User: Fold this.
Amino acid sequence: MELTIHRGTEQIGGTVITVRTPNTCIALDAGTALEGDALEEKQRLSAILGEAADGIFLTHAHPDHAGLLMERNLRSPVYMTEDTQKILLAASLLGNGIPVSRDLVRKLPLGNPIRIGDLSVTAFEVDHSVAGAVAFLVEGGGTRLLYTGDIRMHGIHLARTEELCKAVAGRVDVLLMEGTNMDTQRPDVVKSEGDVHREIAASVTAARGLVLAHCSPQNVDRILGFINAARASGRIFVADVYTAFVLYLLKRRLPDHPALHDPPPYYRTWLNRASAARAGRIWKGDGNFMPLVEHAQVNLQDMLADPGRYVLLFRPSMLHTDFGEKLPEGTTLIYSAWSGYLREEPWKAPWAPVLSQLDAAHIQHIHTSGHISRSDWVSFVDRIGPHMVIPVHTEKPESYAEAFARVHRLADGETFSIPQRNKD
Ligand SMILES: [Zn+2]
Assistant:
């Protein structure tokens, strides 16, 4: 089995990996760089993905792993979990994504290997900041490779990681391991998703006016944290139509939460100006969703008349499109995403007029990383017990050697032949 990391040995995101045997070639992830890709780079990577004729396997729906699928000239079948397919569908209808052609999508089973030429690929659910994320065990030519995709152990679904460890411990030759948080200059990430939910609940309870909640509509665990916080404080959570559509598509896979199954008393939908225009696109695609939205709709006047009753999922563009540049008096913003979007170009501009209206006490930053902490990294690798670890999805590949003895670094584009080991 030959492994090539075309991009990702020294950067976070934009991951493109191929695995080949003499008769088979697959790709693992098809990501665009976090800061976007120039046309030439897109064309170079699309050509590589074109060689992966037997299939492109997606770990999850984030653009830094799936963004190159938006290239229209791709012809390979694309394997993804049902949840990833749904998230990509919602993003294509209501966000910025372009749909992957239905003819190319192949649904991935969880926990059961599928055979692709000389290779067998098994998807294992993992915990990450988007629903539907998986790791891949790739077997063939007498060797086993485990690719983590993006993974963490401080989320709600630790049991998934436990299952993965149980299934593969002691059987992995090469562990292709993400290391987003391997920067030893920064404090180790310790706040759990559960801690984040408790802090959100405390903040919503303490707030008096309207609460604006900002997080990714694809981060369903976090959205549920906000819904529960609203419920506990007697408020109504208001989803924009994008978030409502994601919750609707994934409801069968979510915990048994009454707000997601009944006509929602705590979760209502706001068809704001921007989304009302887009909502027409899903009207045809799913006849059941729109009546649900209309049944449980809230409008801005309701919210402005009694702002202390609501937690509203918020995007900075709404300040202009819906709030007429002025937030209601006493509004609290719970910002639950990476802080760089508030501080750094090109993301900070839309936030500036929002932040300028709120004093420091009314801006709460409550968040944790979607990626494994350094200390959990060590215990995860220890439990898997791989023959070797290869760094990927990291800016600090050199720091892996401080955490694990058998690290083999590759350069982008370098092909590595995975050595066969004597098997039990
Ligand atoms: Zn990533």
